[in-house]
Amino acid sequence: MSETRNIVFLGASYAGLGATHYFLKHVYPRLPTSPTIKYQVILINASPKWYLRHASPRAIADTNLMPNEKIFIDIAPGFEQYGDKVKFIVGKATSWDPEKRVLFISEPAGKETSISYHSLVLATGSKSASPIWSSYGNGHEEIEAALADANAQVKAAKSIVIAGGGPAGVETAGEIAENLNGAPGWFQSRPRNPKAQITLITSADKLLPRLRLALAKQAEIYLNQLGVDVQYNTKVCCCDVSIERV
Question: What is the biggest distance separating any 2 CA atoms in the chain, rounded to whole angstroms?
């Protein structure tokens, strides 16, 4: 009697996809072979698409600059190279029994199923205030809706505050400012007719704290040219906005 041992990966963002591909390429071929034992790799994710989350600063500014078809990529075709060694399931984990080694999954259309596993890799990521910053949730449609809402708010805004002076905050400020205010003309240090007042707040005494001071200063100059003012040594304790945690 043959036995199937399921190796389950839960979550298909950066960590989950990377771990699954690595396992199939480097670990699976070295598993002990037996006529009675078969190994099945199962990847489970709430969405059939992978979210290119590091492109979100540009998508927040305007999804015309970074269309949905470029930031939401089908997951399944990337695993066709492994044949029947891997199975991809679109679903969301609802509960887990570690003693019995059983994972309970809710699939689209409300279908409930359970999967027993030999090994389980949890790569579900973290939860954020907005689905824009998190890949694991209720599917890519939720992220698309959040990006569309962010676009509408950005276009209508007269004043925008971005909290965080790291790479994500600096890039988001630059993308939004260039899209709204445009680049300055010749012999100008700032846009002539800015559409929105944009402020980048950081608790540090420079932008991009892990980089050397010269690069931080250059980043500030570029932001200033796009109409972004930088406020240092300031912490954001709370806010009442829809776009947050940049």
Answer: 80
With 0-12 / 13-18 / 19 or more C-beta atoms within 10 angstroms meaning exposed / middle / buried, residue 202 is buried
The low-confidence residues of the chain, meaning pLDDT below 50, are 240-246
pLDDT at residue 135, rounded to an integer: 63
pLDDT of residue 245: 37
pLDDT of residue 166: 95
Pick the CATH number of 3-144 from 3.40.50.10420, 3.50.50.60, 3.30.160.100, 3.40.190.10: 3.50.50.60
pLDDT of residue 239: 53
Is the fold of 3-144 the same as that of 157-231? yes
CB-CB neighbours of 115 under 10 Å: 20
Beta-carbon count within 10 A of 170 CB: 25
Going by CATH, does the domain composed of 157-231 fall within 3.50.50.60?
Answer: yes
CA distances from 147 to 121, 208, 243 (A): 29, 25, 10
How far apart, in Å, are the Cα atoms of 103 and each of 5, 15, 114, 121, 165? 14, 19, 6, 11, 40
Chain mean pLDDT for the chain: 90
